[in-house]
Amino acid sequence: MPARSALLLLSTLLLSTPALAEWKPVEKIETYAISGQTPLELYMSIGEKGPVIGADRKRAIALTNFKLTWQRDYQPQGGACVLKTAKPKLIITYTMPKPAGKLAPAVQTRWDAFATGLITHEKEHGTGIVDMVDKIVAFSTGLTVENDPGCKKIRTQLTQYLDQLSKAQRQGSRDFDKEEFGPGGHLQKLIVAFLGAG
Fold it and tell me: Which of 19, 14, 40, 16 is nearest to 195 (CA)?
């Protein structure tokens, strides 16, 4: 096939194939109030009022949560089941600290730098969640399972894949936090800079 014809065919195929990522997450920022007038007081208040996570009920500085729901179109075709479309609805919520009172200009400047670094960190978690959902969409769309006229086997297969991706996303999130809070990590530096003398 001549190169020009091949390019035209490829262009036609690309135009006729729906994009897998024709969706966008909804991102929200919620805050919890902290008190204090100095960086140390503010940081100690975070330790007292930050969101609680994990079985050991530890408090975090900030937190990224998400709610994911799906609209899926399963269609029996012959003896098979085809998942024609899988449309996600993803809501990502970032929970961030916010001083309840007005801060002195110098403290406010340091707080602003600290808060900017925090949301940048949390949005990296958000990016990991979006990446996971993109992978689910790519795997799901057009998934076909033979000998499944009742569309039951396909749900089991999909659930197994989602479980693998979910575990990988959580582990990636933990690894990222470990690196960020570790020696020389971005968040460790951010905290040290915020609590520095002055």
Answer: 40
13, part of any domain: no
Domains of the chain: total: 1
Mean pLDDT in order along the chain per 10 residues (198 residues): 34 37 89 96 95 84 95 92 95 96 95 96 95 94 93 94 93 92 90 80
The C-alpha angle 57, 63, 66, rounded to 5 degrees, equals 105
Tell me, letter by letter, the H, E, C secondary structure of 98-146. EECCCCCHHHHHHHHHHHHHHHHHHHHHHHHHHHHHHHHHHHHCCCEEC
Answer whether residue 2 is part of any domain: no
Nearest-Å Rg of the Cα atoms of the chain is 23
Q: What are phi and psi of 72, to 5 degrees?
A: -120, 140
Beta-ladder partners of 53: 58
In a domain, 25, yes or no: yes
